[in-house]
Amino acid sequence: MNSGSPSVTSVPKFAVFQWLQNVLLQNRFWWLWIFSSSLMHSLGAIASDSAVTETAMQTVDSSSTHNVNETNETLEIAKDQIETGEYEAAIRVAEREIGRTEAILGRYDIALVEPLVVLGDGLAGYGDYDNALNAYDRALHVTRVNAGLHDPKQVAVVYREANTHYAKGDIATANDRHEYAYHILERNFDQQADEIALIPGTFVLADWYVKTYNIFMARTFYERARVLAETHYGVGHPILIQALRGVANTYRLEKFAPADIPNIEDLVASRRKGSSTDLSRLPPTRINNFREGETALIEIVKMVLAQGDANIEEVALAKLDLADWYLLFQQNKRAQILYEDVWLSFDGGSSTDFIARELQYPKPIYLSLPQDPKTSSNATHVRTTKGVVELSFTVNERGSVIDLVTERAEPSGSDFLVRKQARKARYRPAFVDGKPIATPDVRLSHTFTYYPRPRSRGATSEPDR
After folding, report:
1. Which residues lie below 8 Å from residue 92, measured CB to CB, with a gap of 6+?
2. Domain locations in the chain?
3. pLDDT by position in tens, the chain (length 465)
4. What are the φ/ψ torsions at residue 171 (nearest 5 degrees)?
5. What is the CATH number of domain 364-465?
6. CA distance 305 to 317
7. Contact at 8 Å (CB) between 203 and 299?
8. Which of 101, 268, 385, 461 is the most exposed place for a label (fewest CB within 10 A)?
9. DSSP conformation class of 414
C-alpha cells in the first residue's frame, strides 16, 4: 500500500451480511407493520372503490330500468301508430329506440328484438317489404344469439316474414317460412306433455294452406288439430269445434273453389319443394269424400246442443252451417228442415235481429267473383282505372240465381266474367214464416282495378284482361 494514501479500514463482505441478519432477527416484525399499513391503505382504497362502483352500478341499473320502461311505453305508441296507418311516424320511433338500445346495451342484446319487429311492421305497412324483411331478419339473428337456434320465441318473427313475402307475391318463400315456423314448434313441443302448445301453430299452418288453396295439406293439419284438441281439451271444446269447421271447409272448397286462388305456377313451385314437416307422421287424407265434411258439421251441432250454457244463436248458427252445406250439395229437403227449425227456435219472430240478419233476405253462401285483370306487355302501367259491374237477378226458393240482367258495365264488355260467376252462385234464400220464397231484383255490384290498353285515335278504352 502507498504510504502517501489515507488509511481506510477494510470491512469484509461476510461481516456486512452478519450485521444485516442480526438487525432483521432483532426487529423480526418490522415488515408486518409496513405491510399492515399498506394493507389497510389498500383495503380502504378498495372499499372506497367498491362503494363508488356499487353506486355507479345502482345508477346504471336504475337508468337501464328507466330506459327499458320508457322504451316499452314508446314502442306501445309506435304499435298504435301502425294500427292507425301512421307508418312513417312509427318507423321513426322504432329507429330511435333501436339506436338508444344499442348505445346502452350493445348490438346483440335481446332487448333489441321488440323495436326491430316494430320497425319491420312499420316498413311492411308502408310497403317497403325488402327493408321490413331486413329488420325481421336481424330480429331473428338477435333472438338466436341469445336464446338458441331453435328457440320458439322466433316463431312470431318468422310468421311476419311469411306474411311479408306473401305481400310481395312470393308465395313459394312465404310457404317455406310458414313450414319452417311449424318445424321449430315441432322440435320444441314434440312430447305428449308439451304438444298442446302445437295447437295454435297447427291452425296457423292449416289456415295458410287454405289461403293458398293447398286444401289437402290444410285438411291434414285441421285433422291433426282435431286430434290434439280431443286429447287435451275434450269433446265440445271451442278449439275442437274450430278444428271440425276447418275440416268441413276443406271439403267445401274442394267442390266450390274460390276465385282468388293464387297463381298456379307459384302453387306448384311451393309444393314441389316439399314440406319441412315430417309428413310420414301425419295421417293420410281423403279426397272427394264429402260425407266427411257433413259429418264434421253434424258433430258440431251435437256438441253445441250438449252444452248447457250455449245460447240460442250459437245453436242456430251451427244448424245454419249444416243447412247451407245441404243446400250447396243439392240436398234441398234436408236444408229446408233445418232452416225451418232455426226459424221456429225463435218462435217465428221475424222482427228479431237474428232472423233479420240471417233469414229475412237472400245471403250468398257461395259467390266467387273474378279477380282484378292482370297486366300484360301492352298495358299502360302509369295509371290504373276502376271498373264496375252491376247486376240484378232473382234468387229463387232453392237459392239459385235466375233472370240475370246487366244494369251497368264500365268499361263495356267487362260484365262477361262477372255474369258467368254470378250464375254459379248459391244463396241462402229469404224466408217468410219459416218457408223459403223467391226474391226478385237482388243487386250485385263488383268493382275492380284494371290497366287500360293504349288507345289509338278514335279507339275506346278496353280492360286489359
Report:
1. none
2. 364-465
3. 444 444 434 444 444 445 444 544 444 443 333 344 443 444 354 444 444 444 444 444 444 444 556 668 899 999 999 999 999 999 999 999 999 999 999 999 999 999 999 999 999 999 999 999 999 999 999 999 999 999 999 999 999 999 999 999 899 999 999 999 999 999 999 888 889 999 999 999 999 999 999 999 999 999 999 999 999 999 999 999 999 999 999 999 999 988 777 665 555 555 545 444 454 445 566 677 899 999 999 999 999 999 888 889 999 999 999 999 999 999 999 999 999 999 999 875 555 889 999 999 999 999 999 877 655 544 444 578 899 999 999 999 999 999 999 999 999 999 999 999 999 999 999 999 899 999 999 999 999 988 776 665 544 455 554
4. -70, -35
5. 3.30.2420.10
6. 11
7. no
8. 268
9. T
The alpha carbon of residue 332 and the mean position of all alpha carbons in its chain are separated, in whole angstroms, by: 39
Give the whole-angstrom CA distance, residue 40 versus residue 458: 104
Q: What is the CA radius of gyration of the chain?
A: 38
Rounded distance between C-alpha atoms, residue 162 and residue 149, angstroms: 18
pTM of the model: 0.77
Q: Report yes or no: 457 and 383 within 8 Å, Cβ to Cβ.
A: no
Q: Cell for 20?
A: 444485516
Only one residue has cell 279507339, namely 459
Helix ranges restricted to H, 4-29: 13-26
Cis preceding linkage at 258, omega within 30: no
Angstrom distance (rounded) from CA 258 to CA 364: 13
